Amino acid sequence: MEEDNLTFVNGFFLFGFNLSLNLRMFLLCLLLLVYNATICGNLLIITLVSTSRNLHTPMYFFISQLSISDILLPTDFVPCMFHILLNNGVFISFFNCLAQLYVFCIAEGSELLLLTVMSYDRYVAICKPLHYISIMTGILCVKLVVIIWLLCVSLPLLYIIIIFGLQFCGPNIIDHFFCDLAPLQDIVCSDTFTLKLSIYLLSFPFLVIPSIIIVICYVNIVRAILKIPSNISRQKAFSTCSSHLTVVAIFYLIFSVYIVPTKQQTSDVNKALSLLYTVFTPLVNPIIYSFRNKDIRKAVQETFKSV
Predict the structure, then answer these.
(1) Which class for 2: exposed (0-12), middle (13-18), buried (19 or more C-beta within 10 A)?
(2) What SS3 state is found at 191?
(3) Which of 10, 34, 30, 36 is nearest to 85 (CA)?
(4) Which helix (H) or strand (E) holds 14?
(5) Which residues pair with 91 in a beta bridge?
(6) DSSP three-state, residue 36
(7) Which residues pair with 8 in a beta bridge?
(8) Residue 185 and residue 195 in contact, taking contact as beta carbons nearer than 8 Å
(9) CA separation for the pair 92, 11 (Å, rounded)
């Protein structure tokens, strides 16, 4: 009898934001502005790294890859969010929902792994400066990036395959603005043990191990900087990793709030944090690397002078 009462669905209704029309239009304009700025800022970094000889170094190569991830993430959500804000909700097919979740996993996984590789790059630059060129070769950098993207494209397929085999039943309403994993689990009417197990297992290559590597790298970096006798030399050494450290801190700060919701946290607060994490964070990264980096500013000036 219980199975007869279940309403199986082939798509989901994304509820979006419970706002008035004026507030939805304001949010739409704000998102449009932020999205355009994000795309332009990250495309600028990719172009500068590709064309400026001064930026042909491992660190800037990784930054350009990070910019690709920062373009991929908001592009996965913003067009759908425009439909939600204009129509006060939108219906998304089951296939498109899984595709959106898959791209989200790729973008987030690649960002964390790239930040990990960039931490190792800063560790070698500060702790082993005489061996930096021989360790961080162009071939190694390309191999690391290829491995990162292959992992991010292949491993999240485990999520998608498992979710594809689950049974979803009515109501098919997701109180969110995109197909996130948590709200999808709330409307599953079959056993989710396999899905939870896959989330636990994939947290090791995508979260636990990268976090440990980042912490180890920066502990050694801090130790190496503190051993430098000159204050000027210490400041110069710290400046080489300050931008990356700022990006890492922002990423983990927002990410930790996003994945560990409190009991008092309402759905509106959760959606606001998700919006901050998925849309506004990709805008912050190019700003940090642009305004806090002399090489990037110099490359921008040279580009505009040559135009």
Answers:
(1) exposed
(2) coil
(3) 30
(4) strand 11-14
(5) 13
(6) helix
(7) 169
(8) yes
(9) 6
Positive or negative, the Cα torsion across 126, 129, 134, 138? positive
Average pLDDT over residues 127-151: 95
| Residue of 102, 207, 101 lying closest to 153 (CA atoms) | 102
Long-range contacts at 213-217 (CB < 8 A, ≥ 24 apart): 213/116, 213/119, 213/120, 214/115, 214/116, 214/119, 214/248, 217/119, 217/120, 217/122, 217/123
The tokens for 297 are: 């500013």
Q: Give CA–CA dist 142/123, Å, rounded.
A: 18
The residues, ordered by sequence, that sit 6+ positions from 68 with a Cβ below 8 Å of its Cβ are 42, 46, 110
Main-chain phi, psi angles of 156, to 5 degrees: -65, -15
Contacts of 203 (CB under 8 A, 6+ apart): none
In tens, the pLDDT along 227-273 reads 888 887 788 878 878 888 888 888 887 777 666 554 445 567 778 77
Q: State the alpha helices, DSSP H only, in 165-208.
A: 181-186, 193-203
CA distances from 282 to 126, 239, 254, 266, 277 (A): 27, 22, 12, 24, 8
Nearest-angstrom CA–CA distance, 35 and 27: 12
Neighbouring C-beta atoms of residue 276, cutoff 10 Å:
14
The token pair at 252 is 């983990």
**What pTM was estimated for this model as a whole?**
0.90
